[in-house]
Design a protein that fits this description.
- The complex is a heterodimer of chains A (about 100) and B (about 100).
- With about 100 residues, chain A is of the alpha+beta class.
- Chain A has helices spanning about 1-15, 35-60; strands at about 20-25, 30-35, 65-75, 80-85, 85-95.
- Chain A has one domain (about 5-95): Beta-Lactamase, CATH 3.30.450.
- In chain A, strand 4 and strand 5 (about 85-95) form a beta hairpin.
- The longest helix of chain A is centred in the middle third of the chain and has 25 residues, at about 35-60.
- Chain B has a single domain (about 1-95), classed as 2-Layer Sandwich (Beta-Lactamase).
- Helices cover about 40% and strands about 30% of the residues of chain B.
- Chain B is built from two helices and five strands, in the order αββαβββ.
- A five-stranded antiparallel β-sheet of chain B has the order 2-1-5-4-3, with helices on both faces.
- The longest helix of chain B has 25 residues, at about 35-60.
- The mean pLDDT of chain B is about 90.
- The chains are: A alpha+beta (about 100), B alpha+beta (about 100).
- Strand 3 (about 65-75) of chain A pairs antiparallel with strand 3 of chain B, so a sheet runs across the interface.
């Protein structure tokens, strides 16, 4: 599993626009990160809450639907949240424009 | 103001993949919608809480940053949420593939 994770991190790090990648488990604990640790902890806490909220929203609107991806576009950058079964991945990227 | 709203609606409705557009006032009350009313009110309630939470999260991570849009991708469709001072625009679209 960890070789897979390393491979994925390496693949994404080659893209110029990527500021950071974090792999966080379902309890909000960062498993892997390319960013500074304190910032990662902050993002982990915040993104975990948001992930749960988004999941609730989707299921509330339609119980047969599934939450697959979340993109938050902010002034400074774009945050991508990809939920998986045991963890979720957060990527920070600079938008092209 | 209502001419502006009509213009927004017309612009988004011309895209082929758009399943519905909802425009809310800052208190999450639907001003205009192209979807059925019960569903609109349901969307208004859940999306408003998600957008508020996401905006708070973004400012807690970085006080100079601001949330611009949220894209919530699910299996069946994609919900694009644009919060602003005078309205919250929600567009439900079917993904391209």
């Amino acid at each position: 599993m960890s070789a897979e994770v390393e491979e994925m991190l390496k693949r994404f790090q080659n893209f110029k626009n990527i500021v950071g990648i974090m792999v966080i488990d379902n309890d909000g604990i960062p498993i892997k990160t390319t960013m500074e640790y304190n910032l990662t902890l902050h993002y982990a806490a915040v993104m975990q809450t948001l992930r749960e909220k988004a999941q609730q929203v989707v299921l509330d609107l339609d119980a047969t639907n599934e939450f697959t991806f979340l993109r938050l576009r902010t002034l400074r950058h774009e945050v991508l949240l990809c939920p998986e079964v045991d963890y979720f991945i957060v990527v920070l990227q600079l938008p092209c424009d | 103001m209502s001419a502006e709203i009509e213009e927004i609606l017309k612009r988004y409705q011309s895209y082929p993949n758009v399943a519905g557009i909802i425009i809310l006032d800052p208190f999450a009350i639907p001003i205009k919608t192209t979807m059925d009313y019960t569903l609109t009110v349901h969307y208004a309630a859940v999306v408003h809480t998600l957008a508020a939470k996401a905006a708070k999260m973004v400012s807690s991570l970085d006080a100079n940053n601001e949330l611009m849009t949220i894209r919530l991708r699910t299996k069946q469709h994609e919900v694009v949420i644009v919060p602003s001072e005078s309205y919250i625009i929600i567009v439900v679209q079917k993904p391209g593939e």
